[in-house]
Design goal:
The structure is a homodimer. By secondary structure, chain A is an alpha/beta fold. Chain A has helices at residues 2-11, 20-26, 28-37, 56-70, 89-110, 133-140, 154-157, 163-172, 206-215, 229-233, 236-250, and strands at 15-19, 41-49, 74-78, 113-116, 148-153, 176-181, 183-184, 196-197, 222-224. In chain A, helix 8 runs parallel beside helix 9.
């Protein structure tokens, strides 16, 4: 955490998205102080969600509280896959919508916006039944836009020919809560979770996405979020530098 | 090939979908005679497509000819991913539509129907830029339904909440050329190609799909198509028996 914060400050990066595991390991209050003292904004906290877990309600309330403590305006929701043994994806999706609704009062009270993230359909069964931006918007729609938004993550939605229409819809509804950038590379690794590429190393039209969220009125941060064992094995500063260079060349 | 045909006949299976590699290895004419003499129908030939290859036109004409020789009424098209170095998925999709159109006269003359198969979005960059049934139907639409149809493969489209509407659309347009069944299981293997499950081993609502294509007017065969290294390593007859049992329990 200290290396991350020092690296961001040194590189002139003004904000950082945090994950709950690392924040919990370092200590939530301690992280909040570290980041605040460095003058860094926390752009989002990953992740709430996993609404197929029995303890989803309490766990998400804790996540909201942690986001508030960290000063993160957004809690990213990875909604979870199918319950064990279930084949009922419609029911699982409906449950996500209802669960988000149950969290809205606490989120509003804490000043933290819930952001439903559509994950790539290859994660539909085991990580997130919300598989497209259109679905995420449908689920968010019953609730106030200041309480429930959506995430646009290029890695998850680049293949979708309807994504441009849905980004426009999201913008008009004021629902884009978070914009994340990663590139698509192949072959995918076993389990497919750690297969992302740094910006510019893959086939996604990243600048087209940035221009689309711009045109839709999004004025928030751009988060680079790359899960890959090889990337994670490298020194943080080297990854940060390559991310910034990739951002300038392919996103900005 | 001989074991396959004998196994189908022995199990009372009246038709089989064939793949070009195996058919070429055994000999196309020889396969045609073997299958015909056994009283077996060839339900489809996999696969044409790969329109991002320089020789796509000649290669697909050959595939159409082989389907005609085998008596396969349908040539399944796996349309190919992005051209090397390209990020232009829109252009790649448009090219698929144009390429299919160029093949229509030859397909009509040969009595072979071209079937555009949407593949799961995890294959979008490297195997098939057609990622949803709606896209496949959009691409087929300019051409006569007797020349160009679509494939509904449960493995590729199960995650899509719009698939039910699109199956209905496909049925009304007389476009369902092929119905294939495989189940979704995790974790996905490296490269994700060989990750399918036999019917009933995963989370797909297979019967709902069969009922949907039925309701859409589809009266053709149901093909079970399972790519998995473990399945392929087993004796063919054991796989066939489990496929038939899974079909009866979860599809029929």
């Amino acid at each position: 955490m200290e290396e991350l914060v020092a690296g961001c400050v040194d590189a002139g990066v003004g904000g950082v998205g945090l994950w709950r595991e690392e924040t919990a390991a370092y200590g939530v209050e301690k992280t909040a102080a570290l980041v605040r003292d460095a003058g860094l904004a926390v752009t989002s906290l990953c992740r709430g969600g996993f609404f197929n877990s029995p303890d989803w309600y309490d766990e998400n309330r804790r996540a909201i509280d942690e986001a508030a403590t960290l000063g993160a305006p957004v809690l990213v929701l990875v909604s979870g896959g199918l319950p064990p043994g279930s084949r009922d994806v419609d029911a699982a999706r409906a449950h996500v919508g209802e669960a988000v609704g149950e969290l809205v009062p606490h989120a509003l009270a804490a000043g933290v916006r819930l952001a439903i993230e559509p994950l790539h359909p290859m994660f539909c069964s085991d990580r997130c039944v919300v598989s497209s931006l259109g679905q995420a918007l449908d689920l968010a729609e019953p609730y106030p836009a200041e309480a429930v938004g959506v995430v646009v993550d290029t890695y998850h939605v680049w293949w979708d020919d309807q994504v441009w229409t849905q980004i426009d819809r999201a913008g008009r509804a004021g629902r884009i809560a978070c914009f994340q950038v990663a590139d698509w590379i192949t072959p995918l690794p076993e389990g497919v979770l750690l297969g992302r590429g740094l910006p510019g190393t893959g086939c996604v039209e990243l600048r087209r996405f940035r221009e689309a969220v711009d045109a839709a009125g999004y004025r928030g941060p751009v988060e680079v979020e790359v899960f890959h064992a090889d990337v994670w094995a490298r020194p943080g500063r080297s990854v940060l530098d390559e991310s910034l260079a990739g951002y300038l060349d392919h996103v900005a």
